[in-house]
DNA sequence: CTGAAAGCGCTTACAG
DNA sequence: CTGAAAGCGCTTACAG
């Protein structure tokens, strides 16, 4: 194992000063074209790469973005929400395309926030990604902001939270999917998913759902809502409870994972989807297409979302002005909602 | 935005030297318990964190591991193989648990290997994760090894490739799933998946498959094999080709994604799974359980794999001896293979 | 266009 | 147990 070459080694070989090597390698127009090429060739031959630690220390920035994933505390390892996975993929690519590195870390609700500060030190900016509220972190987020840490969060814009958010219009998504159910003739509805402050995305979906119920002059009082976080088993349990009290025409679920559980529950009681009960989800995760009954759901453009998140975080880092942004959701009609014609 | 505190600031406030601060914060037993506590308290109050760039530069290591994901060049963004996603999750956690950071980057076959070297500079060790062969990278891997870069790859142990590998016994997996099909009475078989040098994992699964065919005294000549990389569409196309020439009792697929495509193909021709044609996959990705016909498949313990990968890479970094390791696969029997009794 | 020098914020021998 | 000092490998004013 040979020790790594430094810029001094290159300088020595090229017969120039170390400063010139540094300039040449960073494509400074200050250095003579010819010299620059020669230095680059030598660097290439030696497989030399600039030491990032030294470079970053000197430049006082890291060329690194950190992605902080907030998981639901109950979800087990193997069940990372596929939606986030998809986001992870697009963020990774967008980051790389921008010439930045990506540090990924999972934040656990149980831990204290050590990791965030650590990461904020190693990264020029942070992307926060997670379902549910960042309410628990509000204080920490304020602290980050005070320190001058640049961060963006995925989710609903929210006056009460520090920081800028980029998200998908959950209210509109809830409207789209519920309106479709109404349009094709469903009359009675249930909703599965947390619908309080702790889960702003879910709540917005629920609000969209309720707004359609109200406008359609359906009996809002007959609507059942059951709490659930985004897991298959929560969906299952909530659906069982609902069906024990009565059978709605359609169940609107706050996520595809919940919908998968609801479908399993409906079947376990001997009903058929969508014949006896229609089910719709949210997220358009991969499973939803291949599911036993392909799921009608709401698609969020994760590709675009990743690009937006990275592009805007970079703007933030460059002290440009960034505002909240809400992407439009897209209704995906498959079989689980019933008669589509 | 206030500028960040440094160890000198802490030293000033604590009335000690900067060296002492550094020692206290790294829990050196050299410094007086009381002083240590006082310094730590101040650091906490100031929300001070050690500058990693400076620390790493000085210590000449990065406390960072890099995960290099090799994707099939054809797979589109949204379809990152769920198996890798699961690995990503477990690697992320294992890395964090070990007190390291994780840098994630997607290597694109089209690009040159710049990223690898970059990453090798920012990380103490590399984990290579991808389906298929690393043949194309063989030269680069040798170079990495020469430079003294520590790396581990996920996959089949392979004499011809540099580096140590940790993987799952693909041959045995192929045996398990095929033997089960034979046991429950299937007689004629097809295999979908690349079965040449370029895809060592798939080839090993195929070899396991063929060994069962041979031992079962079935007519090996009648076995059809069609190439496919791990995508739903490749699986679909390959299955269509197979069914156009004849209908085997069972199709063994080199991955779950391929199996999903095969099932779609079988249905599109009016056949039923498993009644007319049984299908089995490999990987036990999340979809396989929720699929229209739950998939019989082979499970690889990604949780363990991630831990093993990280633990062994850390050993490598500490100059301990590490050897190839092959994890046992586990057969998961669901409905797609037919009569299970 | 090029070089000598300072300094980014740490860790760790070295000396006491 | 503590401090003064060197140095990790760069980038970038500063001077020419």
From TrEMBL, chains A, B:
Q: Record's PROSITE patterns?
A: HTH_LACI_2 (PS50932)
Q: Which UniProt keywords apply?
A: DNA-binding, Transcription, Transcription regulation
Query: Superkingdom, according to UniProt?
Result: Bacteria
Keyword Transcription in record: yes
- Annotated HTH lacI-type domain ranges read 5-59
CDD domains in UniProt: HTH_LacI (cd01392), PBP1_CelR (cd06295)
Recall the GO molecular function terms of this protein's record.
DNA-binding transcription factor activity; transcription cis-regulatory region binding
Please name the PANTHER family in this protein's record.
Answer: ALANINE RACEMASE, LACI-RELATED TRANSCRIPTIONAL REPRESSOR
Q: What is this protein called?
A: LacI family DNA-binding transcriptional regulator
Organism (species):
Brumicola blandensis
């Amino acid at each position: 194992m040979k020790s790594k070459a430094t810029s001094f080694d290159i300088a020595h070989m090229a017969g120039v000063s170390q400063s010139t090597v540094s300039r040449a390698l960073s494509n400074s127009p200050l250095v003579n074209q010819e010299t620059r090429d020669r230095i680059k060739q030598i660097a290439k031959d030696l497989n030399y790469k600039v030491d990032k630690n030294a470079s970053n220390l000197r430049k006082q920035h890291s060329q690194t973005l950190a992605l902080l994933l907030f998981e639901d505390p109950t979800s087990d390892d193997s069940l990372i929400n596929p939606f986030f996975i998809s986001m992870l993929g697009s963020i990774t690519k967008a980051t790389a395309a921008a010439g930045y590195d990506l540090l990924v870390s999972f934040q656990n609700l149980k831990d204290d926030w050590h990791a965030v500060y650590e990461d904020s030190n190693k990264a020029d900016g942070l992307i926060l990604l997670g379902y549910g509220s960042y309410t628990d972190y509000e204080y920490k987020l304020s602290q980050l902001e005070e320190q001058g840490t640049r961060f963006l969060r995925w989710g609903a814009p929210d006056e009460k939270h520090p920081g800028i958010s980029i998200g998908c219009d959950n209210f509109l998504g809830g409207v789209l999917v519920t309106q479709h159910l109404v349009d094709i003739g469903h009359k009675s509805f249930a909703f599965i998913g947390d619908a309080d402050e702790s889960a702003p995305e879910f709540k917005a979906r629920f609000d969209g759902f309720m707004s359609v119920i109200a406008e359609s002059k359906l009996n809002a009082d007959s609507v059942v809502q059951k709490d659930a976080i985004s897991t298959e088993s929560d969906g299952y349990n909530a659906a069982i409870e609902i069906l024990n009290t009565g059978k709605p025409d359609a169940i609107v679920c706050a996520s595809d994972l919940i919908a998968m559980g609801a479908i399993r529950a409906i079947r376990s009681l001997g009903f058929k989807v969508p014949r006896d009960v229609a089910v719709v989800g949210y997220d358009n995760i991969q499973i939803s297409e291949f599911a036993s009954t392909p799921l009608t759901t709401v698609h969020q453009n994760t590709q675009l979302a990743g690009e937006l998140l990275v592009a805007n975080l970079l703007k933030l880092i460059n002290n440009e002005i960034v505002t909240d942004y809400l992407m439009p959701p897209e209704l995906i009609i498959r079989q689980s909602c019933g008669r589509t014609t």
